[in-house]
Amino acid sequence: MTVLDEMDKKILYALSRDARLSVEKVAEQTNLSPTPVRRRIKRMETEGIVRRYTVDVDMEKAGYGLTLYVFLKLQSRDRTTIAKFEDKIRHMPEVTTCALVTGPHDYVMTMRLQDMDTYNIFLHSVLSELPGVFGIETSVVIGGVKNEIPVPR
């Protein structure tokens, strides 16, 4: 596992704020010259630390005003059930994140949808039909507080 030093973290932080920054701008923000910044970025891309460059979308303005956390419990945790369940989840564009977790649930997912009616339909026609699903609990996000990568110190 690669250990990032403070300069790598500063570069990642700059890119997380604006992935379109030029190497020169990142160098200015990190007080490093462009050549080592370029080399560090390339290394982090090669090592899979930087996986992709993306855009920060205002989901409400884009028509996805409802954010949900969905907690799922599986009836059985055998390999076949888990593999089928995870394969289905990977192909659902409505699911933005899904993690295997400890505690009373097996998985927690984040979903972005248009509205509660859309979720109600999705819940009954898709989620409840997933392989091995035994229980579903949903929490509706009523407001965001913070969503950033850690700031290097």
Report on the structure:
The protein has 153 residues and is an alpha+beta fold. The chain folds into two domains: 6-46, Orthogonal Bundle (Arc Repressor Mutant, subunit A); 66-140, Alpha-Beta Plaits (2-Layer Sandwich), CATH 3.30.70.920. 36% of the residues lie in helices and 20% in strands. The protein contains five helices and four strands; from the N terminus they run αααβαββαβ. It has helices at 6-17, 23-30, 34-46, 79-90, 116-125, and strands spanning 66-74, 95-100, 107-113, 133-140. It has a four-stranded antiparallel beta sheet with strand order 2-3-1-4. β2 and β3 form a beta hairpin. α1 (6-17) crosses α2 and α2 (23-30) crosses α3 (34-46).
Summarize the model shown:
The chain is of the alpha+beta class and 153 residues long. 36% of the residues lie in helices and 20% in strands.
List the helices and strands and how they pair.
Layout: H1 6-17, H2 23-30, H3 34-46, E1 66-74, H4 79-90, E2 95-100, E3 107-113, H5 116-125, E4 133-140
Antiparallel strand pairs: 1-3, 1-4, 2-3
Given helix and strand content, the structural type is alpha+beta
Count of discrete domains: 2
What is the highest CATH level, the class of the largest domain?
Answer: Alpha Beta
Radius of gyration: 20 Å
This entry's quaternary arrangement is: single chain
- Report the total helices: 5
| Shape designation | elongated
N-to-C span? 21 Å
- Reading the helices and strands in chain order gives HHHEHEEHE
Range of helix content: 25-40%
Number of strands: 4
Spatially, the strands of the biggest sheet line up as: 2-3-1-4
Assigned CATH architecture of the largest domain = 2-Layer Sandwich
What is the CATH topology assignment of the largest domain?
Alpha-Beta Plaits
Show unreliable segments: none
CATH superfamily of the largest domain: Lrp/AsnC effector binding domain/regulation of amino acid metabolism (RAM) domain
**Amount of beta strand:** 15-25%
Average pLDDT over all residues: 93
Sheet with most strands: 4 strands, antiparallel
